[in-house]
Design brief:
Layout lengths: L18 H11 L11 E8 L7 E6 L12 H10 L3 E4 L11 H13 L2 E3 L3 H6 L2 H11 L2 E2 L4 E6 L2 E8 L6 H15 L6 E5 L5 H6 L4 E4 L17 E2 L3 E2 L6 E4 L4 E4 L18 E8 L10
Parallel strand pairs: 1-14, 2-3, 3-4, 4-5, 7-8, 8-9, 9-13
Antiparallel strand pairs: 2-14, 6-7, 10-11, 12-13
Length: 294
């Protein structure tokens, strides 16, 4: 990846340099601050539960924003095929409110032809004013619109209940509470419950309503990261130094996994130390050590 390796002509004495500056200088020299179009990576997590009777694999795709990933989106579809998931979860903002939809449609067509796909909307799709058209196009491809549904599905050998909520358009807090209550009434108490929702800042709400696993996007990884120091600089609805920028967050009741998303050329703040990612979740039916994709 390209990186601006130009360093200042004069460097203060070591004892006068702020520790954060030392860290940044080290990352620059190591070529770890990406500019332009950072390359895709795949991040894997393992989640185990006694509620699951077997194993399965989910792929989480969020915040594509109709960005380009090679000819016919091969960079992204090849990464997906390399993992060969049992289902693909589309966590919102696959389309953009500025870029044309061709890249998103190309990826979705391929994904729907090869994998069971489930979708909830994001804020940019809602804001763009074409959400109904986008949903109709996806339904024609065979993609399931998950908003307000609680679906028992098989993921490999694992059986779980998959729930989803679209991004709220107003009165977000009240809307989310109402949807959580509605979903909670549909799900058996002993089921392993997975929620697909665009917004990670509602993590505690998802846990309050008994979801074992919530999968989100929206934060774009906080745009800038300094691994080991800062997990994200800014995220919408969370502000500076967001708590849920990207990664895995464990609670007594369950876990929340936040994808750093796939947006590249649509981000008005360039991604730094924050490569776009395809997230893969390995489900296990017996206790085991969990992997962390930080």
């Amino acid at each position: 990846m390209g990186c601006d390796d130009r360093m200042p002509q004069e460097v203060p004495a070591a004892d006068a340099v702020h520790p954060l500056r030392k860290k940044l200088d080290g990352l620059l020299r190591a070529g770890k601050l990406w500019r332009g179009r950072p390359g895709l990576k795949t991040v894997s997590y393992t989640v185990d539960s006694r509620k699951l009777a077997g194993t399965g694999k989910l792929a989480l795709v969020t915040d594509l924003h109709s960005c380009a990933y090679g000819q016919d989106m091969h960079e992204l579809t090849d990464a997906l095929d390399a993992e060969n998931p049992d289902a693909v979860l589309l966590g919102g903002d696959i389309f953009d409110d500025v870029l044309p939809p061709e890249n998103a449609l190309c990826f979705l067509k391929y994904a729907a032809e090869h994998y069971p796909c489930y979708y909830v909307s994001g804020n940019h799709e809602r804001r763009g004013g074409n959400l109904d058209i986008c949903k109709k196009q996806m339904q024609d491809m065979g993609i399931c619109m998950l908003d307000g549904k609680a679906l028992p599905i098989a993921v490999g050998q694992a059986v779980l209940t998959l729930c989803g909520v679209d991004d709220p358009h107003k009165n977000a807090h009240r809307q989310m509470h109402e949807k959580m209550k509605m979903l909670a009434r549909q799900v058996p108490a002993d089921a392993y419950k997975v929620l697909l929702s665009h917004r990670p800042e509602k993590a505690l709400l998802y846990m309050e309503y008994g979801f074992d696993l919530a999968l989100c996007g929206h934060a774009h990884g906080g745009q800038w990261r300094i691994p080991g120091l800062i997990n994200g600089l800014y995220a919408p609805e969370q502000g500076m130094f967001p708590k849920y920028a990207g990664g895995r967050y464990d609670f007594p009741a369950g876990s929340v996994i936040v994808s750093r998303g796939l947006a590249r050329e649509t981000t008005w703040i360039p991604r730094i130390c924050n490569r776009p990612e395809l997230v893969v979740i390995h489900l296990k039916g017996e206790a085991g050590d969990a992997d962390f994709g930080m």
